[in-house]
Design a protein that fits this description.
CATH architecture: 3-Layer(aba) Sandwich
Oligomer: single chain
Distance between the termini: 82 Å
Radius of gyration: 21 Å
CATH superfamily: Alpha/Beta hydrolase fold, catalytic domain
Helix content: 25-40%
Order of helices and strands: HHEEEEHEHHEHEHHHEHEEH
Number of domains: 1
Structural class: alpha/beta
Number of helices: 11
Strand content: 15-25%
Mean pLDDT: 92
Low-confidence stretches: 1-22
Length: 328
């Protein structure tokens, strides 16, 4: 009897092993500051990473839960953000900040240097975690980020956030997400149901740093892709297989007369801002304020490194100062 019981226990453990593994979310760690630095220094040997040094007068609160997902393919899931804010009491505008990594890799800590410097200029900044493509396909990340914005409004009194002055910024894939979140203000199908739905997820300004705004533009659609390309993996299929999804995720198709101001900061690699010229044309048509700045360098993650980090911060601060001015 003991042998039978032991065999039964072993059988159960063996059979349950694959299911236990499913509770671990797969991670892609190919996009890091260090890996990017190795690539950048092949062309620009003097590039230096921007360090996350907390400025004087700025407080940091990390690993704040902003949404709890009770049911996912990987079990219960909590999403977090890191908050940086001036220690001096007051009412401040806020900026939600979205990291890049091809919707598959990267993490919110890569936004910390930018977030800290914006905080030093009078903003409350929140770097957000979102579900990457190995965990959840489009549009989960959009729903995550809009939930983070709603969380900020729900907790505005605690942190001194002016809910009428919230912007979003993002880099690379994060830039695309920021552009899409901003372009879809008030459109119900992009909201999701991840908490605080009594609050608005609308933003008042958008900063897109080297992020695609039109997946159907030639600079994007004509790229040669492997079957596991970042966008194919995120959308769950090629353009031929899922054209409606590729269009749905393109911010340009949601831009209209009610669109908020945009700042575009570009590298010298056109494929990372595919569709931007056409989107600027639409913004011009509707008289919507925007800025475009381009670093003429063949470096995609320029915002992570000096000598490009400081002017990137300066462009962001200037734009936010113009668009989130406090109404007297």
């Amino acid at each position: 009897m003991q042998r039978i019981a032991l065999v039964s226990i072993l059988f159960c453990l063996i059979c349950s092993a694959p299911f236990a593994q499913q509770t671990t979310i797969p991670r892609d760690t190919t996009y890091t500051v260090y890996q990017s630095l190795l690539k950048v220094r092949k062309v620009y040997p003097d590039a230096v990473p921007a360090l996350p040094v907390l400025p004087e007068g700025i407080a940091a609160e990390r690993n704040i839960a902003y949404a709890v997902l009770d049911s996912t393919a990987w079990g219960p899931r909590t999403l977090h953000l890191d908050l940086f804010h001036p220690r001096k009491p007051g009412l401040y505008p806020a900026v939600v900040m979205v990291h890049g990594g091809g919707w598959r890799s990267g993490d919110r800590s890569m936004q910390h240097p930018l977030a800290m410097q914006l905080a030093a200029n009078g903003y409350i900044t929140a770097t957000v975690e979102y579900q990457l493509s190995l965990e959840a396909a489009y549009p989960a990340a959009v729903h995550n980020i809009k939930a983070a914005i709603r969380w900020l409004r729900a907790n505005a009194g605690r942190y001194g956030i002016d809910t009428s002055r919230i912007a979003i910024s993002g880099c690379s894939a994060g830039g695309q997400l920021a552009a899409l979140v901003g372009a879809t203000n008030g459109i119900a199908k992009f909201e999701g149901s991840m908490g605080n739905n009594q609050h608005s997820s609308a933003v008042q300004a958008v900063i897109d740093i080297d992020g695609v705004v039109d997946f159907l533009a030639p600079a994007s659609l004509n790229l040669a892709r492997k079957p596991d390309a970042a966008d194919i993996s995120w959308f769950g299929g090629t353009f031929v297989q899922k054209p409606e999804v590729w269009k749905d995720a393109s911010p340009i198709f949601w831009v209209g007369k009610g669109t908020v101001p945009y700042l575009f900061i570009n590298s010298g690699l056109p494929r990372f801002h595919a569709g931007q010229n056409e989107m600027v044309g639409i913004l011009n048509q509707h008289g919507i304020y925007h800025q475009v700045h381009t670093f003429d360098v063949k470096v995609h993650p320029f915002w992570l490194f000096h000598p490009w980090f400081t002017p990137t911060v300066e462009y962001m601060v200037d734009f936010l100062g113009r668009t989130l001015k406090k109404k007297e």
